[in-house]
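Checklist before submission:
- one chain only
- standard amino acids only
- sequence pasted in full

Submission:
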Amino acid sequence: MRLSRFHAVNSAFASVPCVFMHGGRICALLLITTALSTSTLTAQQETDLPNRSLQTFPNPFRTNSSNSKAGAGQKSGDLQPGKSALIEGRRDQAPLLRSDFSNNWVDVIRLASLPKHIEPPVVTAISVSPKGDMIAAAGDDHAIRIVDLATGKTTATLTGHLDWVQSVEFSPSGLLLASCGNDGTLRVWSLGSSPKLLSKRSVSHALLALTFLNDDCIFVAGFSNRIYRYSGAQPELAIFHVCDCRDIRTIATSPDQKWIAFGGRDGVLRMRRTEMVENENGLHSDPSNELTSQLHFDRIRSLQFSVDGNQITSVGEDRRIVHFDVVNRTVVGQTEIGGGKLLGLCQLEPHLFAIASSDNTIRIFSDTDQQVHSRLVGHDGSVSILKRTQKHLISGSFDTTIRIWDIDSAIASIDNQGRYVHPVAAQFEDSGAGESVK
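Returned file contents:
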């Protein structure tokens, strides 16, 4: 058990690092020193933790659009204890999210430490295979594990990165895996019975985010103002676009593959068409096909296109979730979420999102009423990444665990503080417990 380990929410390359002892470590030390006279928290003790009302935040982006969902002074989610408006509205429908596997599916995955490593890695990168049966997971020990979700067992370990792995993603076919990290390399791996490195491209700075356009085209960015384009036929990464932001943290491809969207330190959403034009300097993105919008006051940490590609939802270190209408090019909703910095985002249904936070908590948020409907408790470190299968939410954390959540249970089985406690829960700390969902 680790008694003290410090981590930064931001990359080591960030200009203003935010250093803290990640969740539960003080509590773990307290447990050792009092082990002879105390036990873990009971469910009743957890329920008795103090409450704190969600914050109110005025909307500086309010527009005159008839589609606007968020007004000035709008409150974060209010919900009657033990009752979900979302579930009430879906009683006449077949539940969308149920268990993917048998009753023996894994609740928690803790990646084994590498040889000569004492500690397991913190988890900051996860991707789910197109079939939904495997995940790739990586973090601060520079390795990538391929994990069978049904058993929780690691089937392959990919090594070669020389520093923290920041992003991993399966290709659309599931035959390839791409990874990038602080060592400035983009690596493409061929998968199968014996996974191996297929190609490697390098730049002089950290690479923090990537997305596939197709199996032979990857967009990647990081601690630079450049967006790079990878092709297996080219020996080097091509510069696709140069922007004004020198710290890109998230990048995504639209469902129709015609746009990429990216954001980072300056809080600006940027979109570019994916087609290339040729000039005297070679192939580049078309500068006339550009869209920018100031969505956040701090780093954008995660963004996603809607299924139809008409909306982008983003979360950031300013603790806000913002909804942007791509067609009309306007903000249609925003809410400040109580708690820590927002680090991860995963859309569960057209109007339902899971949000990961540095306060160890996952919040289920509906953009229909701009409310938090439940809080998922179980991690004891910052929740850094969220992904999903068809029927489960998967979260990675600085507490070195990957947790798998049944979404129906997480929404419906909440206590009188609006919390759902993971079946294998960390008993020593609930940083989000002070926040009451009414």
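Reviewer check: The longest strand covers residues 207-214.
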